[in-house]
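Chain A, query sequence.
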Amino acid sequence: MKLGLLFSGGKDSTYAGFLALKQGYEISCLISMLSKNKDSYMFHTPSISKTEKQAKAMNIPLIIGETKGEMEKELKDLEKTIKKAKKKYKIEGIVSGALNSAYQASRIQRICDKLKLECFNPLWQVNETEYMNDLIKNKFKVITVGVFAYPFDDNWLGRKIDEKFLEEIKKLNAKYGINIAGEGGEFETFVLNCPMFSRELKITKFKDFKEGENSFRREIEVK
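Chain A, predicted structure.
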């Protein structure tokens, strides 16, 4: 079955695509949404424009949709973009990296139902600790490009997700309730390499932005 992957460039969507391939599906295209609202309810925004470089590393065509990121209205933009992917690449379904967000999963499902597409969420309600360990075991090179919760500071930007990172996140989970996989929006990520990539992406430069007392994002350039 040909699928379109809702792709943000972060760990969840990338790993969902990896699992879909392992299950025998074909990823015919990637679908990325560029939101003008950095606080979009639906879409990941840090370094989102760099999905083009990731798509080239995966040798999978990319369709980019744009949205103002207004709540609920942004879903019409997503539907329009998925419809375009269906027509161009003859996809029969959509795969997403939804973990626990009923808001996101239900709305993606609604769009798929309307467009008569299957909807796959291979990470839905996984054990988050096991999932993070699986990322590491499967050699996903993932860095943080945004942190948005207490007690994070800018020292967490650019951190690689590895055993040390996971141990520290577990402690923050126990003390402050930080979600181990960042599912509550506590941190956002970018994938530099994984088994789906033909080569590792290299960061050439970056710029950090402080957006609140414990909110920081990193915009990166890669090659």
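The mean pLDDT is 95. The chain has two domains: 2-120, 131-222.
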